[in-house]
Design the sequence.
């Protein structure tokens, strides 16, 4: 809301470390409001950091083995943690206790690699197991189900496909589809409602798919694979499946619009993340000795913009802030570095009506600048100006703009109506209660 | 309405109808708002006595008179749900009242010197109070006990406010410092050496990215909460020492009161004064103003002539004057949901008066 005052330049990428949260974390995720960071730890807990106070405000302690992923519901009320202990726990941050109340525990029969909320309804969860199976778990009363996403195999070459397992699974930003990466370099697309596979994209030369990321705007996604290349693709459109009809599976080879790799040291990538406007893509390098974040300018044909150096602790994860030019990168020592775009201190701000000029400027006096005007007339003009109506209430933007997130859709869309049925309690108005910390209670 | 109607009283010898020089007053002024035009000389009479306005007017009437403070009252504030009203005074006490019955519910005692300001947390559970004993206390209003005692200011603490999430607290002291506190731990996170004189008001904007502060050095400053950088300074005329400032409900404007008996609404992006509200008297005391948005859109302020003034936000006319206090009215507050105003006065009056607009009930 105060972008013009806070940041005089257009949003750009972060350039410097603002703060370091010593968290014992193995990865960190901003919430959709951008006020909190959830840090997953290998001891089975997740810490919720408040970025205003830079302090841990909640400990989600419930797993007995390492937390493998966290996800936030769209208005940040619910947090999901998945763990190697075969469980996914959903926490309700609106409960005024620490650790927060669990509102659901989903058990599987293998370690959970990752889990995500459906972007429109946190009662639908997508989970990927270390055995290479992906499940959509629906905990709504009317739809209660646990459905495995199964690849539909074609007649030919099924021996080869049989060996492929799922290695990454994500909802797309609209929640209509689940994208699954496989160990053989395929991206499978499933309809979230019907759980039927609608497309299989072969990505030549990719090998094992390590992760998938979607840009919130601009219908783009990026893949990270074992060939040490990040590829960016244009998101294809898929027809909504017709109920009852055997629908054809779209089999295509996707051609990346860009390939990003490190041409010199040829390192692989741990993670990647799009900026909120989709104009930048950040890649976290897996270099074992440095903490390097590469940033590419997507709006400028994917040109390499810069490499940020975060010191000597190697990087293991990155995540871009949902609104601002900030990044969270995690070091292998468990610190979460928050990157920002520092604005230089303007000393002119301390004097009213004073402007700083970068260079000497020849001052040109305006025609009537120092004319002595009639006071009465001045007062009258001021009075006229003051008759302009002001609006002291309106024009307040919501922190989380769902249109921006691609969550809003056309009415009458069957997939979205399905997801909106039995909505969760993740209202925009909920507030996190501040829990007072006793002085002797040292975190 | 006739924009020139009010000028009849304030003109001196000139006939303002004949004032057409090269700058036609009808043309909106596109120049950079020339160095703050000097105030029209005869200020107090500048308001139109009665224009042919069809706007609805407020009709506030006295409901309750709350007596109990033994020394000058400095602030009154409604709780966010509107069920309670808190007041603080130089008698070291915070008092919690019911605005509907006028009964005293609880005293919060613990400060060792007089209090200057109070602020409710958004959930209404806690109340922060700023005292001359150089500390800020956070009270649990239900139990009446101090939850946190924030020490760090080197001088009297004059003003205090929560952010919307109520995880941060900002306070301003008489040493010119503004401090930002982590509420949960009761620790000072940041000290801004903001001003050279008493900091008389501090306020967060809606999303807590900005803090506005003003001081008796005559400056209004806007700060970036995260970095502590000064983003802007608004200076009024040298005769207009500002003593209270706050963001509008949507945080697009700031409202300031100054010792030239004027309340101003600023667009802080352009540093332009959009509205000036005059007619009351404010030359000596720190008098707060506030927005009233539950019915009509008004600006409400106390005055040194022992009255409470209500202006129309848009037309800047005084639409109602509440009389009854027998001392300078330094504190006013508006109910968050109903058409209700609370006002507090210093010695010798020492009362809090609750006014409500009959049309609302």
Sequence:
């Amino acid at each position: 809301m105060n972008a013009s005052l806070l940041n005089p330049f257009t949003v750009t990428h972060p350039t410097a470390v603002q703060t370091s949260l010593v968290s014992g974390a193995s990865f960190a995720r901003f919430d959709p409001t951008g006020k909190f960071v959830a840090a997953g730890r290998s001891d089975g807990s997740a810490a919720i950091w408040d970025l205003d106070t830079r302090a841990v405000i909640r400990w989600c302690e419930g797993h007995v083995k390492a937390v493998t992923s966290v996800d936030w519901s769209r208005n940040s009320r619910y947090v999901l943690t998945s763990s190697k202990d075969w469980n996914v726990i959903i926490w309700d941050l609106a409960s005024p206790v620490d650790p927060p109340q669990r509102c659901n525990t989903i058990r599987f029969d293998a370690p959970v690699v990752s889990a995500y909320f459906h972007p429109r309804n946190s009662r639908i969860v997508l989970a990927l197991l270390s055995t290479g199976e992906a499940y959509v778990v629906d905990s709504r009363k009317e739809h209660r189900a646990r459905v495995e996403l199964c690849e539909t195999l074609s007649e030919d070459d099924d021996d080869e496909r049989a060996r492929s397992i799922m290695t990454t699974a994500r909802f797309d930003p609209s929640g209509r589809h689940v994208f699954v990466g496989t160990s053989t370099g395929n991206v499978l697309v499933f309809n979230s409602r019907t759980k039927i596979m609608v497309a299989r994209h072969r990505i030549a030369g990719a090998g094992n798919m390590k992760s998938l990321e979607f840009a919130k705007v601009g219908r783009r996604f990026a893949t990270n694979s074992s060939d040490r290349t990040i590829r960016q693709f244009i998101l294809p459109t898929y027809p909504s499946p017709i109920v009852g009809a055997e629908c054809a599976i779209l089999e295509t080879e996707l051609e990346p619009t860009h390939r990003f790799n490190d041409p010199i040291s040829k390192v692989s990538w741990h993670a990647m993340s799009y900026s909120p406007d989709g104009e930048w893509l950040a890649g976290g390098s897996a270099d074992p000795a440095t903490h390097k974040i590469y940033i590419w300018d997507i709006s400028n044909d994917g040109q390499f913009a810069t490499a940020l150096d975060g010191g000597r602790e190697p990087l293991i994860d990155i995540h871009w802030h949902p609104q601002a030019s900030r990044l969270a990168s995690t070091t292998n020592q468990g610190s979460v570095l928050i990157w920002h775009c520092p604005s230089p201190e303007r000393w002119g701000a301390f004097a009213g009506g004073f402007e700083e000029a970068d260079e000497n400027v020849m001052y040109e006096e305006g025609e009537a600048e120092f004319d002595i005007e009639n006071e009465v007339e001045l007062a009258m003009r001021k009075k006229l100006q003051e008759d302009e109506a002001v609006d002291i209430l309106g024009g307040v933007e919501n922190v989380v703009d769902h249109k921006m997130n691609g969550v809003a859709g056309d009415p009458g869309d069957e997939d979205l109506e399905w997801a909106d049925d039995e909505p969760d309690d993740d209202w925009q108005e909920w507030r996190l209660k501040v829990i007072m910390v006793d002085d002797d209670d040292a975190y | 309405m006739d924009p020139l109607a009010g000028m009849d009283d304030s003109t001196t010898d000139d006939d303002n109808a004949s004032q057409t020089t090269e700058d036609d007053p009808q043309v909106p002024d596109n120049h950079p708002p020339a160095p703050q035009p000097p105030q029209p000389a005869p200020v107090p009479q500048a308001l139109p006595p009665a224009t042919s306005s069809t706007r609805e007017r407020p009709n506030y009437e006295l409901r309750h008179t709350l007596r109990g403070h033994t020394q000058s009252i400095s602030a009154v504030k409604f709780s966010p749900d509107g069920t309670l009203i808190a007041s603080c005074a130089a008698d070291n006490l915070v008092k919690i009242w019911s605005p509907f019955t006028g009964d005293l519910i609880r005293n919060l005692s613990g400060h060792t010197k007089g209090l200057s300001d109070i602020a409710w947390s958004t959930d209404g559970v806690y109340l922060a109070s700023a005292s001359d004993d150089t500390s800020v206390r956070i009270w649990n209003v239900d139990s009446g006990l101090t939850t946190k005692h924030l020490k760090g200011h080197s001088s009297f603490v004059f003003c205090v406010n929560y952010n919307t999430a109520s995880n941060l607290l900002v306070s301003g002291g008489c040493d010119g410092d503004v401090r930002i506190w982590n509420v949960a731990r009761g620790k000072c996170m940041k000290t801004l050496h903001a001003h050279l004189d008493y900091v008389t008001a501090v306020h967060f904007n809606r999303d807590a990215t900005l803090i506005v502060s003003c001081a008796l050095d005559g400056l209004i400053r806007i700060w970036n909460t995260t970095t502590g950088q000064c983003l802007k300074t608004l200076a009024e005329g040298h005769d207009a020492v500002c003593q209270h400032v706050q963001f509008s409900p949507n945080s697009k404007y700031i409202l300031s009161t100054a010792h030239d008996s004027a309340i101003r609404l600023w667009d802080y992006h352009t540093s332009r004064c959009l509205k000036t509200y005059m007619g009351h008297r404010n030359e000596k005391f720190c008098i707060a103003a506030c927005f009233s948005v539950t019915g009509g859109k008004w600006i409400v302020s106390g005055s040194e002539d022992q009255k409470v003034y209500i202006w129309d936000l848009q037309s800047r006319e005084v639409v109602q004057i509440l009389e009854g206090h027998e001392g300078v009215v330094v504190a006013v507050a508006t109910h968050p949901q109903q058409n209700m105003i609370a006002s507090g006065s210093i010695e010798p009056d020492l009362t809090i008066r609750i006014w409500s607009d009959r049309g609302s009930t």
Remarks:
- Chain B touches chain A through 82 residues (CB under 8 Å).
- Residues 60-357 of chain B form a domain with the Methylamine Dehydrogenase; Chain H fold (CATH 2.130.10.10).
- The first helix of chain B runs from residue 7 to 10.
- The two ends of chain B are 31 Å apart (CA to CA).
